[in-house]
Design brief:
By secondary structure, this protein is mainly beta. It is 7% helix and 34% strand. It has one domain: Jelly Rolls, CATH 2.60.120. The protein is globular, with a radius of gyration of 19 Å. InterPro entries: Beta-glucanase-like, ConA-like_dom_sf, Glycosyl_Hydrlase_16.
Length: 343
């Protein structure tokens, strides 16, 4: 999770997302960075799926770095919160059964991949993603010694938001900003140059610290998160990062490219990404190193807590933790997560 401050998203007031990372150094997969080109072929390196899904992850059990009303359980204690269904779908959820006092902490899970990466194409298929009052779910990648190792937020929103946010966080070891006026333009099938992203650019300074933690962010369109995302049977998020760019695409269930379904992803055929950060304005190689994947569901905390009453919820976020029905939809269902490297 990250450290973010107040951010204005479209017409919805988005409060602060503050994150600090407590992260151990996992096993590292080293790979050379490759330029994204028409000739690039991607080879599968890791795939998290089915009954062995959780074998590739460590369970984070420390106090929530974002000050949430949450207890992150160990693998042994999370048998009811992190499991694989008979159909092979991996589930991560918040406890929606136990009695918790107002202002108390509720059980949840946060997992970190054992492997870390230096450049990758990450494709994640989610059948559903957690949402609900007080809920702060995320799928992201983070390096050691935050923010100096960098962070890429692939799926993140709070409460009952229905728009996803993509954000980068960097330290002082590399200059990194979002600049819509520089960088490569994606082209349509007829060769016409188009804008390099489809999302709404809401902040441009990626540098994150204790005093300024917005990061550089894009918001996706309506239905990219929350209840509408789940009603549409979820979708696929594809993240490409190398020395030249970090790009994030989202595909609805009925629009997943055939090359992804076949296991031969070709980003050049996917069209314009939702979010793009170019090496022209961001020193990607210096800013993003040894990133591990993370999936978690926090409760309240620095963003969901601060934004709680923007959804016309009564009382305080901390008090709402006592209502177990707030977590009936606080569940992430993962079909698979695949990590590819340029061959």
């Amino acid at each position: 999770m990250h450290l973010l401050s107040l951010l204005l998203v479209a017409v919805l007031p988005v409060a602060s997302m503050a994150r600090m990372h407590v992260h151990r150094n996992p096993q590292t997969h080293r790979s050379r960075h490759h330029n994204h080109s028409r000739s690039t072929v991607y080879k599968l390196q890791d795939k998290f799926q089915g009954q062995t899904f959780f074998d590739g992850w460590d369970f984070f059990t420390q106090a929530d770095p974002t000050h949430g009303n949450v207890i992150y359980e160990s693998k042994e204690n999370a048998q009811d919160l992190a499991y694989v269904q008979p159909d092979g779908t991996a589930v991560l959820k918040v406890d929606n059964v136990s009695t918790v006092a107002p202002g108390g902490n509720r059980r949840s899970v946060r997992i970190t991949s054992k492997a870390s990466y230096n450049g990758a194409l990450v494709i994640a298929d989610f059948w559903r993603f957690a949402h609900g009052p007080t809920v702060w779910p995320a799928f992201w990648a983070v390096g050691p010694n935050w923010p100096n190792g960098g962070e890429i937020d692939i799926v993140e929103f709070v409460n009952e938001y229905t728009t996803n946010q993509n954000t980068l966080h960097t330290g002082t070891n590399g200059v990194c900003t979002s600049n819509p006026n520089v960088g490569p333009l994606y082209k349509s099938a007829n060769g016409t140059a188009t804008q390099s992203f489809t999302g709404n650019l809401v902040s441009t300074q990626c540098l994150s610290s204790g005093s300024n933690n917005n990061g550089c962010a894009f918001t996706d369109g309506e239905g990219s998160a929350g209840h509408p995302f789940n009603v549409a049977a979820g979708g696929v998020f594809a993240t490409l990062w190398d020395d030249t760019q970090i790009s994030i695409w989202r595909f609805e269930r009925n629009q997943i490219p055939q090359d992804i379904q076949n296991g031969n992803p070709n980003p050049d055929s996917w069209g314009t990404p939702v979010a793009l950060w170019s090496n022209d304005s961001c020193n990607i190689a210096a800013s993003f190193q040894d990133l591990s994947l993370v999936i978690n569901i926090s409760i309240c905390g620095d963003w969901a807590g601060a934004d709680f009453n923007n959804g016309n919820n009564g009382g305080t976020c901390a008090d709402a933790v006592a209502n177990s029905t707030n977590y009936d939809w606080a569940q992430i269902n993962v079909n698979y997560i695949s990590v590819y490297q340029a061959a």
